[in-house]
């Protein structure tokens, strides 16, 4: 079982994170990558890298034969799957063993048993682990699922039997919505996991999502490393996680931990795993599922226990016994993690793609940022929308929370849209501060969605000044040497001039005047004097009238991208004669992001109402309904099922009534 070279069958932040530990243990590392990832940090970090195809994951990161061949070609004796992709694929684990290599994870049979939610629930019921009431039968017909849902009662959860991460999962509030939810969940599950099998569970309202990190070796030892609270989630995808839970007492931890260990023993588990529970306010808890891999949120456990979980995975895979017992496990302080996604919370949380023009990860006491990106890369539509994890630890929960807010502000990505402002808002909400967030927290807090940021006059003045300052610098460079006396001399008073900016779909008229130490910008008739106190490596400190603004900025000829606190603002300068995006007719339906069309419901001549579903677009492993923005008659349909679209592609045209 010993090996000196480890291949990481993954990408992004988890691949880089695994490699850092492997290298610290003296292991040689091998990366696999696609054309879309050829400039990714995990490729540069590895001792050797093997190209496994173009961007689509089906032909690359999900191709077991290519990955095993890459391990054999490079002399890797072990493969670590990370999370996602093939990490919970029993066939992949078995193929690795058949090739004489070591899989850093549990045995294939444990993966198979726990990977099927229906089988897993039956096993847990047999082992005495409390489970959510539901249906996990073999009859997968729509009629059977509808009948069983009526027995369970509403609201009911429709879930993919395979996989996780919120894919293939829908909460159904009434019988009328059940058929559509079954259809979408089955389609999403088949696309993501290769299986359309579903289970049903009673939707437990206002509960907490609590998971226990378990570890087992090949000698019969099984322990847990405490719990993580993962209740802040949207569409069943976790957004913020913490350890320990604000509500789990020592006594409850012992009870839930014992059940987590029993769950692992029921399948003769080995390695790192996570047993997930729903916890009701009464203290009653139910088994949800077991993830047979390392979790995205494992850093919070590492920070409160001081244990490197990847190092422990590698040691167990090499045949070592666990070096600690349950009595040795202690939880020191508190840790909270926030997931930085390429998505637009103010636009229905749509996934975003685009360049990474500026990237800076926060540093500081108790702060850790796990990322797999770097400046100059592109955020691709082929992969999950998570870009980085921002984690903070402190002696108390409040210290950890305060450090995390600061770290979210200081972890800056410009070029594509991210959820940084949303994360900061959640962390500062009174319910989260009080530790009262449950699985319904985000729906309750943002019932109409997350509101768009309302720009201020100082924001506008700063953007105009940054664009004008960049113009001035280019002009000076092109002019060659000009003395400072000549630069500041004029035979007449300098005139003001118009600067038109666009923010989203809003056109903003300003006027500006150059001053020796900066600019005066008039916004809505009010003057704002802007001067730059300090500029370095994309960071800027500006004085706007009597206030000081610390920001990061990426400026091109006509675009100013600015980070102020948790805000990420993009202003475009509209030059005379340019056509603004706002002139596009509202009846023209365009692709909101790159993706593949999995359904087209629109037909020429069809009457539609505002909000009607016209098509379903799959992007970043999720399916998104494309709806009509107006009521009218469809005049043209320019797309078909299976077509790969780019953001902005015209899909459907509607003659508005």
From TrEMBL:
Domain Biotin carboxylation, first and last residues per copy: 2-447
The species this protein was found in: Ruegeria atlantica
Occurrences of domain Lipoyl-binding (ranges): 584-655
Domain called ATP-grasp: residue spans: 121-318
InterPro entries hit by this protein: ATP-grasp, BC-like_N, Biotin_BS, Biotin_carboxylase_complex, Biotin_carboxylation_dom, Biotin_COase_C, Biotin_lipoyl, CPAse_ATP-bd
A single MF term (Gene Ontology): ATP binding
One Pfam family cited in the UniProt record for this chain: Biotin_carb_C
Gene3D superfamilies xrefs: 2.40.50.100, ATP-grasp fold, B domain
Alphabetized CDD domains for the sequence: biotinyl_domain
Cofactor: biotin
Name recorded for this polypeptide: Acetyl-/propionyl-coenzyme A carboxylase alpha chain
UniProt-listed NCBIfam families: PRK08591.1
